[in-house]
Amino acid sequence: MELSESHTLPVPQQRAWEALNDTAILKACIPGCESIDADGENAYAVALTAAVGPVKARFKGRMQLADIDAPRSYTIQFEGQGGAAGFGKGDARVTLEPAGDDATTLSYTASAQVGGKLAQIGSRLVDGAARKIAAEFFKRFTEQLGGGAQNDEAAAQENPETQAASDAEGADGDEPQKRKRSWTAWISKS
């Protein structure tokens, strides 16, 4: 599986770098994350629960930072075991570039392999789940950095499911609107 994306963060490059290396912020932003603990120099033990299609499991793994060029880039090497659900391993190259005085462009290219039941459910479901987790991570990460209000519209455009949910609440929250989005529209945007 290959995944590449870019996101604009509402903070200067140094602040974005610090946040990417703050385990408390990362724990709050990674969907299903139960813990991130230091496990040596530039290494972390991670535990999280994730669902990929019909497979839901608790994964325990390790994340190692390599090729560190602060505050511009690093490579994350990761591996995790989910018991009977299978395993995942891979790496992600993360780069930060200034986008003006108060913004930073975060780009990443990730490559991952899965095995066990995860591999049996099909690459399309695995890719979709990975994109959904990444979208939720960046939504939470932007909110942690203080950019939630100004980026809500952009996030809603990137994640139509979130937009559909907010559309269903209605303007004053008491009467749902009749507007619905089809799942095929959501998949085609992925």
Automatic annotation (TrEMBL):
SUPFAM superfamilies xrefs: Bet v1-like (SSF55961)
Alphabetical list of InterPro entries matching this protein: CO_DH_gsu, START-like_dom_sf
Region of interest (Disordered), residue spans: 146-190
Family matches, as Pfam families: COXG
Entries under CDD domains matching the protein: CoxG
Protein name: Carbon monoxide dehydrogenase subunit G
